Structures are given as structure tokens and as C-alpha cells.
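hey m, so remember when u said the C-alpha cells were messed up on ur end? i reran from scratch. heres the input so u can diff it against urs
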Amino acid sequence: MAVSSITSLSFSQNELIQEAFDVIGVGSEGEAISADMYRRGANSLNLMILSWNAMENLWRRETISVPLVGDQVTYAITPKPMRVEAARRKTTASGYETPMTEWSRREYLDQSNKASPASTPVNFYYDPQRDTGTLYVWPAPQTAVAAANTIEADVLRPMFLMDSSADTLDFPAEWQETVVMNLAQRLKLKYPVNDPVTNAQIDAQAATLFAVLKAWDNEPASIFLQPERRLAWR
């Protein structure tokens, strides 16, 4: 018996929507799925992806390089990351990277002088506004420091949406069934499933598949925690 060498499949937006409709019993017996139903399914799918942007995923972690500019403290990042999880100052010539300390918004704003005197940046703060993401560094870099260094930022990027019927998911292949079942769970609110047993099975399988993959979607490395000593005067 021959075994294929295929380890991954990618389903298009319309194929995923059709699978979800099949789960809730729409179109499974030869009933046509109209263009309006595909549109509604695509809307539900993209809304679900937007909601899932608020969770951590290993495949969405990227390292981006931000060029420094002398005496400049703000740097717009496009597309806007959901989070900047860490940052390092990298010396271009040697490749040596020095970790930077993350500040909260309050800690950054409490600095009385943000732009001068210019020196070597050691702290960063990320401000994720609705449409834009801005990285702040402190202190502002001297011109010579900026010319010789970049900021290497570890970011959680947003997931790409599906704006074409032929688009595939911005997920690893193993997430496709989870996406289908959770999409079916949303579509049955628009196209009710009359059988209570099937209704309950859809909910249960959607939750189980999601929980299994979220539990898998983490780094197996050990984590060591210790309290940080900070003194705050008020």
C-alpha cells in the first residue's frame, strides 16, 4: 500500500464556508449555497479572525528591524503589531544585541525629559492605538548611536483576513478544522439547526478543537519567574 508524501492541505475561503454550512446541514443534500450566503459566511469568518487576533499564537511572532534616527523618540510600525513583546538594541557592525527594558505607558509618560539629552536607548514603550502602532524609545538616540544601531523588536503581528474566495487561511494547516467548526457555530445563529443533538455536538466539538490547539500552541521550554524589586515613591 502506497503512502502519499502530502502532509498539509490548504482550503480556500469558499471551501471553508461550504464545509461550515455542511456541518449545520445547509447545502449538504444538494441545496445550492447562494452568493449572498457565501458573503454572509465570509463576513462571519473574518469577524471571527479579527476576534482571534486578541490571542497569542506562535506562528504570528516575528522579529522586525526598526532603524533609529538621531534625536527621534517615536517610530511608527506598519502593519500595526498587536503587541511588542520584547526589544533589543543591535549594533550593526558586530551584530551584538542588548536587551531593552519594557516600560508601561505610565512609566514612559512620567519621564520629565523624553527627547534630550540624547544618548543610548535602553527602554521602550509600545502604544497600540486603534489604527496605528508607535514604538517609543528612551532616551532619544544620539546621531552616532542611531547610525550604528537598530532596534530589533519581537512583535505579535495581526492575522491576515480573507478578502477573496480563493484566499487561504493565515493559520497553520492543523487549524482548519477548528476554524470550520467554530465558523459553523457562528453560522447556526444565522441559519438555526433544529436538531438539539446536532446543535450541542457542534458547540462541543468547536470548543474541544479550539482548546486542544490552543494548548498545543505554546513553547515547551521552561520558564523561570522571580519577583522584580521596584521602589515607587508617591
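this time it looks ok to me. The helical segments are 13-23, 35-52, 105-109, 143-148, 176-190, 196-216. if urs says something different then somethings off w ur setup not the seq
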